[in-house]
Amino acid sequence: MGRRPVTVRLARWSAEHPWRAIALWAVFVAVCFVGGSAAGLNEATSGDQAIGEAGRASLIVDAGDFDDPAVDNVLITSRGGALDQAAAKSAADDAAARLRTVTGVAGVGQPVTARDGSALLLPITMSGDPETASDRVQPLRDATASVQDAYPGLRVEQVGGPSIGQALDDTLGKDFKRAELLSLPVTLAILIIAFGALIAASVPVLLALSSVAAAMGLSTLASHLVPATDTTAPVILLIGMAVGVDYSLFYIRREREERAKGRSGLDAVEIAAETSGHAVVVSGFAVIISMAGLLLAGDVVFSSLAIGSILVVAVAVTGSLTVLPALLARLGRWVDRPRVPLLWRLTAPRTGRHGEPRAPRLWPAVLRPALRAPVATLVISVGLLLALAAPALGMKLKFPGMEDLPRTTPAMQAYDRLTAAFPSAGTNHVVAVRAPADQADRVRAALTGLSTRAAGDPLFAPAEADGPKVEVSADRRVSVLDVPTPYASRDDRSVQSLEKLRGDLVPAELRGIPGIEYAVGGSVADSEDYAQHVRDKLPLVMGFVLVLTFLVMTFTFRSVVIAASSIALNLLSAGAAYGLLVLIFQGEWAQGLLGFTSMGAIVSWLPLFLFVVLFGLSMDYHVFVVSRIREGVRSGLPNRDAVSYGITSSAGVVTSAAIVMVGVFSIFATLSTIDMKQLGIGLAAAILLDATIIRGVVLPALMTMLGDANWWAPRFLRPRPAPAPTDPPAPAPELVPVP
């Protein structure tokens, strides 16, 4: 008898020493979490996140070491009709007097009247770290509110970066808190429905939460090698809950199934380890490979997401192979307590006459077309998915701008009034120049000429009355000019103005200055450069993920055909998800239904991140389903029967896992920001398509059509046949009925 697989040996040790295994897991999670907290988080700087020419512009500005304090504003407008200039001036003077007494205000500027006389703007300079200004802006907002009370005939409101930052922090903070509070009960409720027993439903949640806690600590430690970003922790939670629950579902359902056949607790755990445990390892490795592809993007945001995701998947796999068998062995049949009466009768594992798991009647009906007419079913289903994927060919990529933020807050409503009255306060291009100090005067003259030329072009905002403001660093080596455009950051005319600056105006004015280095940045440049960065890196990341996944699947199933079909089906699933995203978010028909304002594009970072996440998570289902089909083939079933057995016997767990993921991801679609809505809907729709049409229709049709060819592989990959016995086997003992 050969050496047993490592998954079985780990499971057996854990099952035989449950308290040791549970204690070791608890210590591991605690050490990871406490160690990470003690080490502290190393966050990415603006330099770490520099991409393209916009990134170079940001680095040049940083090199100037400018004193760049946080600036907020008091905006005074009319509630109807023309603005009363005398009353507005009186309100501005009152606001200035009150604000000068507020702690945290470094200075109050002179009020500025809009070109059309519709508004008055009072600039306020705040003291302290600009990065924390939004945390300290509330006293200023309170002072402005008191001025509003004194002048009810005017609209007096606080608007600017710190005010908007505070409003968004409040809105998004409530959003994420609601998502976190909802995700746990939603997951638990779905698992209770899936298992019909409270303890069985609680175990996957506990494993997932402990995996997330350990991964959070490990990712904090890893941030000292790869800086972390704001998105790392939410993604660890999202991925950790998804895979942690999935892996537990696979394992527990198989263990319950074996116990229903009459196996002892230890035997049931060992069989679950050898089958579902092996599938968990392979699918976890596939997810890790997919996430590792993000490291090739050369972007600190994607790199931090990759590290966090890899860590949480690795921890979840480890937990499912160690502490999960220990819990199942210790609980025994108590895992099915307390039972929910009706749900238990519906979900309790049942077996047929020959010990095979019995599936709900729905799945044989769903499979019937694929098994009876595989070619026609395959052509029709693939054709429909390709039609759904077709809109992805017209995908546009952009960063969300200020105009895409939720308008439910007074700060964003005030921002709209600000940009209407003062176009230069809206979208700005940043021209950053680095040159020898003795060229500073020449650079200033060139930038002044650039501003004058731009002001005469309809793509740019008119010149301000006080002329262009060229900032020069203390060492006179760095000069910066803001060139405003009256259009929103994602408006095509803003992009045209950027292209005109980069291709014509800036080179024409700065050409010939010795030792000069320049770049054009700003919000529009950030969006365009990042979108191009994603387009450039997506083929590289996809190639890496596809090649390594193909190799893993080939060596796992010893079949080139299975590996190739896995890649094809996952690409089909991802393409359909892309097409659905474009249909929903690049048009306007779904705005009222889903509560968003179309930005006419997909968020720049989403396609790359969505691809690796979907490819990794889809492999969970694929590995589990194909493993069950292979079990049927190895037990001697004909190919068609093996396909039916594999799909129907895994239908319950795949459906339950998919419903959990769709439920959690859908919660993210309720958040206020457009990027979270697109992420939530994209993930939920893709998982739903993958677990239903792909696994329930396309996969069985393809494998039925291919028949024995499914398992073809070159000779060197084929498993070696077992050596022939030297002696004839002993006859089986005769079974004697017990009286």
Automatic annotation (TrEMBL):
GO cellular component: plasma membrane
UniProt keyword annotations, A-Z: Cell membrane, Membrane, Transmembrane, Transmembrane helix
Residue intervals of the Membrane transport protein MMPL domain: 66-375, 405-723
Main location: membrane
Transmembrane region(s): 21-41, 181-199, 206-226, 232-252, 279-298, 304-329, 371-393, 538-555, 567-585, 605-624, 645-669, 681-706
Compartments where found: Cell membrane
Membrane-topology descriptor: Multi-pass membrane protein
UniProt protein name: Membrane protein
Originating species: Micromonospora saelicesensis
